[in-house]
Design a protein that fits this description.
The protein is an alpha/beta fold. The protein folds into two domains: about 130 residues, Up-down Bundle (Four Helix Bundle (Hemerythrin (Met), subunit A)), CATH 1.20.120.420; about 230 residues, Translation initiation factor eif-2b, domain 2 (Rossmann fold). The protein contains twelve helices and 18 strands. The strands form five sheets. Strands 8-7-6-9-12-17-18 form a seven-stranded mixed beta sheet, with helices on both faces. A four-stranded mixed beta sheet has the order 13-10-11-16, covered by helices on one side. A three-stranded antiparallel beta sheet has the order 3-4-5. Helix 1 runs antiparallel to helix 2 and helix 2 runs antiparallel to helix 5. It is globular and about 65 Å long. The two termini are about 35 Å apart. Its EC number is 5.3.1.23. It catalyses: 5-deoxy-alpha-D-ribose 1-phosphate = 5-deoxy-D-ribulose 1-phosphate; 5-(methylsulfanyl)-alpha-D-ribose 1-phosphate = 5-(methylsulfanyl)-D-ribulose 1-phosphate. It holds the Pfam family IF-2B. It comes from Lichenicola cladoniae.
Amino acid sequence: MKIQGVAYRSVWVDPDDGFSVHIFDQTRLPWALEVLRLTGCDEVAEAIVSMKVRGAPLIGAVAAYGLALALRVDSSSDAMERDAARLASTRPTAINLRWAIDRMLTRLRNTQAADRVRVAYEEAGLICDEDVAQNEAIGRHGLALIEQIANAKRAKGGEQTVKLLTHCNAGWIATVDWGTALAPIYMAHDAGIDVHVWVDETRPRNQGAALTAWELGSHGVGHTVVSDNAGGHLMQRGDVDMVIVGTDRVTRRGDVANKIGTYLKAAAARDNDVPFWVALPSTTIDWTISDGLTEIPIEERSAAEVTHVTGRASDGAVTSVQVTPDGTGAANPAFDVTPARLVSGLITERGLCDASAAGLAAMFPDFA
């Protein structure tokens, strides 16, 4: 995607700078566009934990490069296994992280130590290229859904704008490029379809208000930020034609783990007959588990993310302020699980399918 007309991916390697890995510091967006240079495994791990880099597919890609950086220091098998475990432990919910590390190890365990650095960079590059291709395909398949809504509106006359609601950030900065939930929206906009996006603020880290709004604005897509509690109201008024979200893990029967608050949007969508679609690459499917409520680990993050908010003051300084009384505790589950029965369908790189064991098995017979 582009920023001020310049094409970027969300992670890239600079061969002229010691093969360092570069990412955007997402904790600085939307107020500043800062590039971080990562040179070692510990720096990559810290960037993931602190959410300087985030988004399930992107975390996996950056962690893959993190292992390549670690191998530059010590390419022995013992060190490789230790560093891989370190990277895999940084975030528990997103399955792409574990998938990427396992894929790297599968390739590297069968590689001589002297060749591991070269092979690691090659494999991490393949992971990135495949992610871009998968997300572009997701965009095309999701575009068909938006086109159906647009065609139905044209046939009826009257209001022509396709109104979409999304939660958290599932755009290009959550992946290597294109995004998952936002990819169909970008393609619809580029195809000339009149779309408007309701952007949930996504407390407590406000990834919708900060990241999704920044992305959509940079691409020229019409959007409005709304409080997290406004989605149901908008659906009741007929102001949402479709909800589309990303996900950090999907079980083999179609349960979906996504940013906290997603379940409530799905419940409101079901009550108001609004289609609720989830966009994901196949790398986000965890074929080893079935029941999302009992088997997906839910990351518990710092209470400070709830008790404090970060923003830009009138003098331009970015600062954090406390919004709760002194001594008041806070719980901060980062994700929730939406049962498959509330999901209208899944948008994958291979096409659309039911959020069910049968639907996923039919779409991915080679994995199921």
